[in-house]
């Protein structure tokens, strides 16, 4: 199991996902019509269909994407050492978000 997790972590580091997310030109992305027209169309369609669960999932995805590019996330690992005092809020926030999404899809009845 440890080798499996080590291989996954090595693959994530080799793809440089964190650097790619941090280097995204957010202003350029949200002013690009090739991104905005389909995105706004999808949001308007979901509002028309009153699919609020899907809108919340999209909002959660955008929020996680934004948070992963912040300076706070870059300081979670200093050298080769994980900062446990900084990782705990991230873990509890992720667990809270995951718990909310599970409740949203499985806990409530419509």
Brief summary of the model shown:
This protein is mostly helical and about 110 residues long. It has seven helices and two strands; from the N terminus they run ααααααββα. A two-stranded antiparallel sheet has the order 1-2.
Overview of the molecule:
The protein has 110 residues and is mainly alpha-helical. The protein has one domain (1-107). Helix content is 78%, strand content 4%. The protein contains seven helices and two strands, in the order H-H-H-H-H-H-E-E-H. The protein has helices at residues 2-15, 17-22, 26-30, 33-48, 52-68, 71-74, 84-107, and strands at residues 77-78, 81-82. Helix 5 (52-68) packs antiparallel against helix 7 (84-107). The model has no long low-confidence stretch (mean pLDDT 85). Keywords: Membrane, Transmembrane, Transmembrane helix. The chain crosses the membrane at residues 26-48, 55-75, 87-106.
Summary tags:
about 110 residues, mainly alpha, two-stranded antiparallel ribbon, 7 helices, about 5% strand, globular, transmembrane helix
């Amino acid at each position: 199991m440890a080798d499996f997790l080590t291989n996954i972590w090595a693959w994530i580091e080799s793809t440089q996902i964190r650097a790619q997310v941090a280097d995204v030109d957010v202003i350029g992305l949200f002013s690009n019509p090739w991104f905005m027209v389909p995105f706004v169309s999808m949001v308007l369609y979901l509002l028309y269909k009153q699919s609020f669960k899907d809108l919340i999932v999209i909002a959660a995805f955008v929020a996680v994407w934004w948070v992963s590019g912040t300076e706070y996330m870059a300081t979670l690992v200093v050298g080769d050492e994980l900062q446990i005092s900084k990782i705990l809020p991230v873990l509890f926030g992720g667990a809270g978000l995951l718990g909310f999404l599970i409740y949203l899809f499985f806990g409530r009845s419509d």
